[in-house]
Write a structure and sequence with these properties.
Length: about 130
Amino acid sequence: MACALAFGSSTLLSPIKPTPKPSSLHYPLAAKVRAESMATEKLGIKVEKNPPDSKLSQLGVYQWPKWGCPPSKFPWTYESKETCYLLKGKVKVYPDGSKDQFVEIGAGDLVEFPKGMGCTWEVSEAVDKHYKFD
C-alpha cells in the first residue's frame, strides 16, 4: 500500500505499513488477565465478581450448604473464615469500626470474610447463597 504525498510541484510515493493488531501471541499477559476474573479486597472483605465455572467446580461450591434471608438488617460476627457464593440477592456489609463505609456484594460474587470480623448486613434484595466455614 502506498500513499501519495504532495510537496510543492512534486509528488512522492511513501509505503504505509499496516499497524499489527495486538494478539495474545504478542501480549501473553493480556490474554491471561481477560481469562481470569479479578478479585478485590476492601475493608478486609475479598470479592471476586463472576468467577469462572471452573473455579466454582474446583472449590466444590455447589456442594456447600445453602443459606438465605429476606431483606433485613442485622449484626454478625465471623467466628471463623467464611467463603460464600451468592446465587441471588444484594447486600451492603458494614464492617465494625468502618464508620459509613461498606462493601456491596450481590448475585455472582464469590466472597471471603475473615475470621473475627464483626459487621452489619443490610440486605436490600433477598439472599440465597452457598457457604463454607474454615
